[in-house]
Amino acid sequence: MLYEQIAHNKRNTRIVMVMFCLVILAIAWLLAATLSVSVAEIFIVIGLIYLAYTYFYATRHLMSVTHAVRVTKQDSPEIYELVEELCLAGGIPMPKIYITPDPSPNAFATGRDPQHASLALTQGLLKMMNKQEVQGVIGHELSHIRNYDIRVTTLSSGLVNLVIKTGLGIVTFAWAMLCSDNDGLLGLLAKFFALFLLVIGGIITIIGIPIAKLLYFAVSRQREYLADAGSVELTREPSGLISALSKLQRLEQPAQSTDMMFNALCFNAPAPVNFITNLFADHPALDKRIARLQKSASI
Question: Could you give the residue numbers annotated as active site?
Answer without folding.
Answer: 141
